[in-house]
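Write out the 3D structure for:
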Amino acid sequence: MIKKFILPCFLFSAFLATAQENLVQYVKPIIGTSKMGHTYPGATVPFGAVQLSPETDTLSYEVNGKYNGDVYKYCAGYKYEDKTIVGFSHTHFSGTGHSDLGDFLIMPTQGKLQLNPGTADNPNSGYRSAYSHANETAEAGYYKVKLDDHNITAELTSTNRVGMHQYTFPKSDQSHIILDLMAGIYNYEDKTVWTYVRVVNDTLITGYRQTNGWARTRTVYFAMSFSKPFKNYGRKSYDAKQAYRGFWGKFNQDQNFPEIAGKKIKIFFDFDTNEGEQIKIKFALSPVSQENALQNMRTEISGWDFNQVKAQAQSTWNKELNKIQVTTSKDNKINFYTALYHAFINPTTYTDVNGEYKGLDQNVHKADGFTNYTTFSLWDTYRALHPFFNIIQPGRSNDMVKSMLAHYDQSSLHMLPIWSHYANDNWCMSGYHSVSVIADAIIKGTYNGDANKALDACVVTAKHRDYEGIGYYMDKGYIPAERSGVSVSNTLEYAYDDWAIAQLAKKLNRKDVYDEFIKRSQNWRNNYDTASGFMRPKLADGTFKKAFDPKDTEGQGFIEGNSWNYSFFVPHDPTSLIEVMGGKKKFAARLDSLFSMHLPDEFFAHTEDITREGIIGGYVHGNEPAHHVAYLYNWTDEVYKGQAQIRHILNMQYKPTADGLGGNDDCGQMSAWYMFSAMGFYPVAPGADVYSLGSPLVNKAVVNLENNKTFTVEALNQSAKNVYVQKVMLNGKEITNHSIKHSDITNGGKLTFYMNAKPKK
């Protein structure tokens, strides 16, 4: 007799829970491309070195020698409101509030050759083209658009280090592909230091480009291969007249000359095309050499099957997206998986396939046993993105910490990264938040290197006296307002970072370091004015600055925020903050005021990145300093108010539309906040092994951990109105302290929220 094989119920359930779903369908890269999101819609793979995406204008960083405020709208190169596309470049930041990159812009055209991009008002004056969102597709790992003025369909996909283009041309004996080596984001007259191009044969070009911008010593090498030989090629140089050019004038370098060099160069390649003919391009990048770029190309894309590369990119994305499987409404799924997609864009790979990369010392290094990463927007991402990686991407988190320590070893200043990309530190924003990321990774067990060496690097960085007021901070316990325009926020952020160092020292039994830095972590008290109840600039003589407005963001001692938001920035010691603010009842009332106040229009006069869409009352979600604030209700007797505010933020600040982000996504920080909060918990103080509980948005989330265990979050009686938590059970045992530990997640298990429309007071 044939026996039927029946899976036991618990095994069958586990199989269903971990089976891959088609989650790519919920990713909408167009979210955040309008207004302040500053995301891009183009093709990349998880943590990919290539970000191949359209540019919609060519604004200069400066006009008449002064900063051009409109350039801020183009941090990601693409602005949803624009009507024209100028081409497709290979490097982009996702969601930042400052920019660089936009390297190697390619534009397919047909008809009379034009090497000027033209203007948005008169696109026919150049090679740019009108387009319609109706003929545009943006998916994870794939982008497609019809270039109306040229009747060309452009398609983009990528691997880690190689961008792949597919252009479908009309019949023409004047089809062209332009390689604009002058184009860039946050561009200006002298940004390109030098460009070199070598035409190897009629299908292969290699070269490099050096730029001086946000990163002041950045060199990117490339290899570019065509699927079809070009019939003719040439260049146009826009270089100013030089005093000495050697004897290269003996050649006609403008037509079919195989070696091209200069600061301002555009190259064109001519083709004859039949109706519907496709010309494909593989464009590989390397931080090290042309040879490595070519090796990257040949390793990652050996043939010319565009659809196969696209399928591979989307399969890679689907595997990563399935690390969390949520049950919720369709719109919430779109928001969640687009957030997960945005969280997995940065940091970016900064090693070639052979493990080589260029370090801060401008020497070539080899990553031994790890992948080297770059694009660390740490002022933003230490708060939630890196803690998120310690749960969802612990292997990559380990490599990211190793990358930071390699940065430290190669730094002439012996400092951990502040905001680093492409073997540079651009020193943007405040704090030394690498120490938070490192401490969090070691305390949560995701870093497997020398922890004591890592602590030493944290201490040396935190004692770099000539960096942004650290000397004053060490001597006085605060930074005098006369010495820094962001004196208060720097003091507050240093104090938190010092607490993170102390937690790491405590774990490693380094008592001397612990004692020193736990004392420094209390320096926030030196900027707290008990008379006004606000964090306030203090002068060198120890008195508070007289002219003070806690709502103002200009000249008050804060970066990207005001005192109303920054006065709550003591994430490492809420209990003491509540005490100095008058106790739990007064503190809760103060939180109420933050979320309910009205900000006058003058508040927006000095901010280019915050509009009313990113604000609830006076709470600024579109900037990061207050991201933990709604969770501070957990330290009061009115926890339910925090639950209501968290759900309000989730629904108001995140929407499945182009303008669906209330502020810059900031390399995934806004997205990480969403995912943590949608699952019902958040890391208020990274460096602690606990997460504060909130009000989950999803019905269910299954987290598939790298250790092959699963952690399930379940919200019973979930609905749009049922935002209040009645009780929380962890593996059947009730939680009463509004928090869970990191090990509760990594050990696997179930967290169950019981939801209701009425608050539990």
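The radius of gyration is 27 Å.
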